[in-house]
Structure formats: structure tokens, C-alpha cells
Amino acid sequence: MKNVLEINHPLIQHKLALLRDKHTEPKEFRELVEELSMLLAYEVFRNLPSMEVEVETPLARTTVRMVNGKKIALFPILRAGLVMANGILRLIPNALVGHLGIYRDSETLSPVPYYYKLPEHLDEKESIVLDPMLATGGSATYAVKVLKEQGARNIKFVCIIAAPEGVNTLFQAHPDVLVYTASVDQYLNSHGYIVPGLGDAGDRLFGTK
Q: Which of 90, 108, 173, 201 could pair covalently with 132 via S-S, beta carbons 3.0-4.6 A apart?
């Protein structure tokens, strides 16, 4: 799959194993999602542009390189994507955050949008869409469509687990969007859940059913 970067770092795989365990409680689950998001972000932002600035150390003035956080926009898909955004904001606290409200109809498995609030001038920013699960690909595809309609040109999709079906759906609609994930799992079951997966990420994050 040309549009996927599956990141197999040992620390990522270790934390993913803990995340999959059905006995992991919501508090630890949230912490693991934040930690995984930070680890994935290192790869997502590997080629992030930086600028030279001058600082004064205790010994001398010197030129260093820093990133402009305001050139980065995070777009968590509500609600599960919010925890991923929290993790990345710990690394890049000046990143802008837009919100995309999309849920999946339980019968048709189609995306149902209900809210979005986006920063301005998306054409000048690196846009990162966040959702722990890329399952059918419907919500991801719709989210990218919304961002492109608002001017975004440089878009990446970051998830913790992806299904081949979702990856293919996103690629067919938006072949320019690269997917970063800790794992491409086996398949979707008849209810649209990723197998082996980790269950419903939103429910496990927030203790709901």
C-alpha cells in the first residue's frame, strides 16, 4: 500500500500491545494513546521545516534551529481523536487545533458529519488529521475532503491502527494523503470493527458503551 507508513519501532509496538489488551482500564488507555501519538509524531514531523534563531546560552550567543508551531494544524476527529491531539500538543504546544465532528452510522457504516471548526489559512499550514482507528475509511475520507475544500494542501492522516479496507478507501479518494500508523491489521468484520484491533477506541478512552 503506497500511501501507508507503518512504524514498527519497539516502543510503539510495546505500547500498542498494552493498548490492545481488553483488561487495560480507561485511565491507562488514555495515557497510552497520548504516548503513542507522541511517538508517531516523531516520524510524522521528520521533515518539518525549521528556521534559524539566535539565543544566548550561559556562555555565548549562538544560532539554533526551531520549528514554527503555528504552521502546524491538528484536526482530531471527535471524539477519540482529541486524546491524540493532547499527546502531540505536549510536543508542539503552539500547534493550532481544529475540530471535526463526524460519527459513523451503526447501520450503514457511513460517515455522518455534525460539526467542524477550523483555523484560517490552511493553505499555509501542514494539516494533520487524527483518529485512533482507520476502519472503513469513511470518516477519514470526509475529513480530508472538508480540509481540502477549506484550502488545505499538505495533509497527513495519523492513526494508531488501520484496516486494509480503510487504507484503500482513503487512497482511492485522496491518493496524495500519506497514512502514518502503528499497525495495519488484518480486516474489518461485518460490524465494521478492525480485527484483531482493540475494540471501540472512543468507548475504551472514555469508559462508555
A: 201
- Residue boundaries of the structural domains of the chain: 4-45+71-206
Nine-digit cell string for 175: 491518493
Q: Which three cell numbers stand for residue 204?
A: 475504551
Which of the residues are catalytic? 104, 108, 200, 203
**How far is residue 73's CA from residue 94's CA, in Å, rounded to a whole number?**
9
Fold of the CATH domain 4-45+71-206: Rossmann fold (3.40.50)
End-to-end CA distance of the chain: 33
**pLDDT per residue over 11-58, tens digit each?**
999 999 999 999 999 999 999 999 999 999 999 999 888 889 999 999
Nearest to 91 by CA among 160, 40, 140: 40
Calpha distance 92→21 (Å, rounded): 29
